[in-house]
Amino acid sequence: MTTALDVIRADRALTVVRAPRIPDPLALADTLAGAGIRAVELTFTTPDVTAALRAASASERAVVGAGTVTTGEQAEQAIGSGARFLVTPGLRPEVAAVAARHDIPVVMGAFTPSEVMRALDLGAAAVKIFPARALGPGYLKDLRGPFPNVPLIPSGGVHAGNAAEFLAHGAVAVTAGTDVVPPAAVEAGLWSEIAERATLFVGSMK
């Protein structure tokens, strides 16, 4: 069975959606998948995100996960709502425990080498390097030295202008954020604009 991480690796990207409202989560997920980014992360910063997860998870093309998961309770809610992967902003042992119990991959947030090692100890399937904008693509190259086989996914400050550089420096995938899914465009349901942004982002990685 194809896992969420397989999809993220294949597309070399996932999209994190932060918006005060998602009027049609299924349309959003299908739009992003159609443009070439099948892994879609809906975050707990969006009110009633569990309803959005349930709706988006009906997509036959997208792989939908939950982000900004900080507690075991949120992890349970996300998985119960159809999330196929979890993403944390930092080291969260209770989230890792729930993910392991349900055999759901977790992409755990870290920044320093010590945090990367701790994330691996907790069973992270991949490590989100956040905030990536702080030190830029070169930092990924430095991390690849001691961690040549660890899937690293930069998040925060990744855009069409630097995505290829992050990948060239060792990222297995990059996280597309407001460059692809501006909150205002999501809230307004501007799917054609989002499709264009996603297509541009995907093209920039080649």
From TrEMBL:
Alphabetic keyword roster: Carbohydrate metabolism, Lyase
Lyase recorded as keyword: yes
Gene3D superfamilies reported in the protein's UniProt record: Aldolase class I
Pfam families noted in UniProt: Aldolase (PF01081)
Domain of life according to the entry: Bacteria
Keyword Lyase: yes
InterPro entries xrefs: Aldlse_KDPG_KHG, Aldolase_TIM
Annotated signal peptide: none
EC assignment: 4.1.2.14, 4.1.3.42
Pathway membership: Carbohydrate acid metabolism
GO molecular-function terms, A-Z: (4S)-4-hydroxy-2-oxoglutarate aldolase activity; 2-dehydro-3-deoxy-phosphogluconate aldolase activity
Family in the record: Belongs to the KHG/KDPG aldolase family.
Subunit structure: Homotrimer.
Protein name: 2-dehydro-3-deoxyphosphogluconate aldolase/(4S)-4-hydroxy-2-oxoglutarate aldolase
Organism: Nocardia transvalensis
